[in-house]
Design goal:
By secondary structure, the protein is α+β, with helices and mostly antiparallel strands. The chain is 36% helix and 15% strand.
Length: 201
């Protein structure tokens, strides 16, 4: 819809991530587009991670099971909109298109969005004690390795591993990255949204 508003008419997007499936359309409708255009409504985008975080908050705090598209409005309220104190705000929620088998994916996206989960490619020397040194010298006391997977096993001297680290606090990332840069290990952050992230995770 935002692409249509910018173009002045419905356009077909080359690709769409279907996670928020209730709102993942390649082309705004010929009927709905003029309705939105003429309404004067302001359109906002919300990250999928924010939607996942809001889904979990709604469920864990309010006992509301919302589908991804159903949590868009309240996620936008928390992430993008500032309202005056004592204002009355109405958000529409829905939950008919929710699959509990996606819960793990929702938690994963939420943790990445909140800065609590990070992926790295680490070149480990193939020698005794390499992982122990990484644990002792790089990880903080509240950091946990939740995934460790060698990418290839055909190099006798070094081996690249995909390592996922879960932080106790978002603020701990800068300290972790500082220790990583000081380490003799070759470490690359696999940033969300990159080709490497989509390929590996």
């Amino acid at each position: 819809m935002i692409a249509a508003m910018q173009a002045g008419s419905p356009v077909t997007l080359p690709e769409v991530d279907s996670f928020v499936d209730g709102a993942a359309v390649r082309r705004a409708g010929d009927v709905t587009f003029p309705m939105v255009r003429d309404s004067g409504a302001e359109l906002l985008t919300v990250s999928e991670g924010a939607v996942c975080t809001e889904m979990l908050e709604l469920y864990q705090i309010d006992g509301i099971i919302a589908e991804p598209a159903g949590a868009l409005a309240s996620a936008a309220l928390l992430e993008e909109i500032s309202v005056a104190q004592d204002s009355t705000v109405v958000c529409l929620l829905s939950g008919g298109n929710n699959d509990v088998s996606r819960y793990a994916e929702v938690v994963e996206r939420s943790m990445v969005h909140r800065g609590l989960k990070h992926y790295f490619l680490v070149e480990f020397p193939q020698e005794p004690g390499a992982l122990r040194r990484f644990l002792d010298e790089v990880l903080g006391k509240d950091d946990d390795i939740v995934l460790f997977e060698y990418i290839k096993r055909d190099n006798r001297e070094t081996g690249a591993a995909l390592v996922c680290i879960e932080l106790g606090r978002r603020e701990d990332y800068d300290l972790l990255w500082g220790r990583m840069k000081e380490s003799p290990l070759k470490i690359q952050h696999v940033a969300p949204g990159t080709t490497a992230y989509r390929f590996l995770i």
